[in-house]
Design goal:
Elements lengths: L2 E6 L1 H5 L3 H10 L3 E8 L3 H7 L9 H8 L4 E7 L3 H9 L12 H5 L8 E3 L3 H11 L13
Antiparallel strand pairs: 1-3, 1-4, 2-3
The structure holds adenosine-3',5'-cyclic-monophosphate.
GO molecular function: nucleoside diphosphate kinase activity
Cofactor: Mg(2+)
Subcellular location: Cytoplasm
């Protein structure tokens, strides 16, 4: 079954939107298989955002992600990588559709509330980076 990595960023946690964000993925029918509130080290943040290392916003991004706790999650379901990104909305909240998480709550591109893996390969890399196998729960909803 396909899995994706989602992270509620410091702005989502600070603004008390953790429950609202999780509710949307549950309502969509995806299955939560990993969940933890955590402080992010500089090393982990730099590894996670390695693809953006040469971008002008890289340092600010790492500083922000390490500034206060995040909620790291793994979700499972058919087509969950693309499906979760549909629920999340476009990277820039100012152009994200209403009804998406970023469209409804995001403030700007640097405060867009949540990260979601952009492809199945990326999801596998990010899940392995953020979670150990023992932190993930293999289960199937009864309905
Ligand atoms: P995320 O999905 O976490 O992946 C990379 C993040 O970089 C992205 O969400 C944005 O929060 C951030 N980002 C992308 N482009 C910019 C930008 N031009 N300025 C600031 N932050 C950016």
């Amino acid at each position: 079954m396909e899995r994706t990595f989602l992270m509620i960023k410091p702005d989502g946690v600070q603004r008390g939107l953790v429950g609202e964000v999780i509710r949307r993925f549950e309502a969509k029918g995806f299955t939560l298989v990993g969940l933890k509130l955590m402080s992010v080290s500089k090393e982990l943040a730099e590894q996670h955002y390695d693809v953006h290392r040469d971008k002008p916003f890289f340092k600010g991004l790492v500083d922000f992600i390490t500034s206060s706790p995040v909620v790291a999650m793994v979700w499972e379901g058919d087509g969950v990588v693309a499906g979760a990104r549909t629920v999340i909305g476009a990277t820039n909240p100012l152009t994200a559709d209403p009804g998406t998480i970023r469209g409804d709550f995001g403030l700007n591109i640097g405060r867009n509330l949540i990260h979601g893996s952009d492809a199945v390969e990326t999801a596998n890399r990010e899940i392995n980076l953020w979670f150990s196998e023992s932190e993930l729960v293999n289960w199937t909803p009864a309905m």
